Amino acid sequence: MQTTLRIGTPQKWWEKGLKENMREISSAQELVDSLTNAGDKLVVVDFFSPGCGGCKALHPKICQLAEQNPDAQFLQVNYEEHKSMCYSLGVHVLPFFRFYRGAHGRVCSFSCTNATIKKFRDALAKHSPDRCSLGPTKGLEEKELVALAANKELNFSYTPKAVPVEEEEAPVPASKPGLPVPHPSMSANDEKTLVSAGR
């Protein structure tokens, strides 16, 4: 008779205490799809790192708040596994949270700890009332989608929405002799970028 002894892998701290409305995101596409398909639900995106003490300490309270708010969806993004995606989304401090809701898209974002958990509770109370937002679900902002698509490390593609072009030509600014004249479609910010890029 043979007996097989299996030693299971211990559960990681961010997997403990998860509620039905909590799940970990595995890709940029899954994040975009989850936000787009959430309808009018409040979606809380929790950016965490396995080595972050503040994230670990806050996790049980986030699980408790998820249980108290079963109509909200809680998505976890592991910073260590998705650094490139986090950089593209401008997440540079942990623990970090973004709240999204229906046609409004992102309604708030902030970092908090156990000491400032009231900020999280207040955001839940403010953005999860039983009112609907009219129109299609917005999800990530256009600039975030473009940043994710531009990131070559991510397997994510996105076609930017077409922006209507005005028919009128902008006046050509006067130039001093010997200086280049900027193209009429170039904004002042473009000009500054071109100047600083030459250094």
TrEMBL record:
Disordered, as annotated region: 165-199
Pfam short name (any one): Thioredoxin
Annotated Thioredoxin domain residues: 1-129
InterPro entries, alphabetized: Thioredoxin-like_sf (IPR036249), Thioredoxin_domain (IPR013766)
Assigned keywords, A-Z: Electron transport, Redox-active center, Transport
UniProt family annotation: Belongs to the thioredoxin family.
Protein's name in the database: Thioredoxin domain-containing protein
Organism: Brassica cretica
Taxonomic path: Eukaryota, Viridiplantae, Streptophyta, Embryophyta, Tracheophyta
